[in-house]
Design goal:
This protein is mainly alpha-helical. The protein is about 70% helix and about 0% strand. It has 14 helices and no strands. Helix 2 crosses helix 7. The longest helix has about 30 residues. The radius of gyration is 20 Å and the shape is globular.
Length: about 325
């Protein structure tokens, strides 16, 4: 990889991109239907908006990085501040364009996501609202996938007005099932906890944040691995036992998914929990940074658990397949 490309890969943190597609896929799984073309558009929009946030983050922090992290691409002179800002603007425009192609509801959610990203980087990052904004961004990213998928999902029995046959006076795809909102809340809560810990990663010295994040990880893992009382989409066909089942999924997949969700939730809890425990016991900067890194890596098994919880075992396994790719790319683009 050439110097120029390497600098952009470092600026955009491309190894972290693998934590993004699972948001939209988990959102689609919450509807109880297979991902479709609009889901792919949502994934593309999510990737663009995430990278826009990375470029904007380094542009906004360029003066601080000149003192604390002079090796970063902007303070080291490998990328100019105007180029980074232009990249953030262009990536945002492309992301919103992809969201628009998935439908007006998706554009509305994408616009809210873009506004949250820009607000965080330019104003909220160093305020008490910073972690909340980051959590909201991840939640909106999952809802972007759900909203886009709903616009092209096949009809589902029940006529709930969520997917398929709408209720009177309501257009299809304008509302989302509570399963999608619950998944978004879980992902957002995890992001909030990790972001709160990250605010002390350079100084260390805080046991409260890692302990709180560790407790949150346990609760979130238990919730992510628990089978929902009503099936994904909340509008699917009913089984003989009265439970609602996802449409278009085999009986074997529906029976396997809850077990897989529990296993993946355990992987999530272990990935995030172990480094958080170490940071709580010894809140040094290196261990706090490892805890933040563990929390970021734990995004993927959490997304996979949420997908499996929605009955999409195959999607969940596909999301987990991103883990080795993320590790490999992280080694290739890590600064020396």
């Amino acid at each position: 990889m050439g110097t120029g490309l390497g600098a952009w890969a470092e600026l955009l943190r491309v190894s972290a991109l693998f934590t993004v597609p699972g948001d939209a896929l988990a959102g689609a799984a919450a509807l109880g239907v297979r991902p479709n073309r609009s889901t792919a558009l949502a994934v593309g929009a999510s990737l663009c908006l995430y990278e826009a946030g990375m470029a904007l983050n380094d542009w906004a922090d360029r003066e601080e990085d000149a003192v604390d992290r002079p090796h970063r691409p902007i303070p080291s002179g490998r990328i100019s501040p105007p180029a980074a800002l232009a990249a953030a603007g262009a990536l945002t425009a492309v992301g919103l364009g992809l969201a628009a192609r998935a439908g007006r509801p998706s554009l509305a959610v994408g616009t809210a996501l873009a506004a949250t990203v820009w607000s965080y980087d330019l104003r909220l990052k160093h305020t008490a609202a910073g972690p909340v904004a980051m959590g909201a961004a991840r939640a909106l990213d999952l809802l972007l996938g759900a909203t886009a998928t709903a616009g092209r999902a096949p009809a589902m029995a029940g006529g709930t007005g969520v997917v398929g046959t709408p209720r009177a006076g309501r257009a299809p795809g304008t509302a989302l099932p509570s399963a999608a909102l619950r998944s978004a809340a879980l992902l957002g809560a995890h992001t909030l906890a990790v972001t709160t810990v990250s605010r002390r990663e350079a100084q260390g010295g805080s046991t409260a944040a890692p302990l709180a994040a560790l407790a949150a990880t346990g609760v979130l893992g238990a919730l992510a691995g628990r089978r929902p009382e009503s099936g994904p989409g909340e509008g699917g066909g009913r089984s003989g036992s009265g439970d609602r089942e996802p449409v278009g999924r085999s009986v074997t997949a529906r029976r396997t998914a809850p077990l897989l969700a529990g296993a993946l939730a355990a992987v999530y809890a272990g990935t995030a929990g172990r480094p958080l425990l170490h940071a709580a016991l010894n809140p040094s900067p290196p261990l706090t940074q490892r805890a933040v890194g563990g929390g970021i890596r734990a995004m993927i098994p959490l997304q996979a658990a949420l997908a499996a919880r929605g009955g999409a075992a195959g999607v969940a396994l596909g999301v987990m397949g991103l883990v080795p790719l993320a590790r490999t790319l992280a080694r290739k683009v890590s600064p020396t």
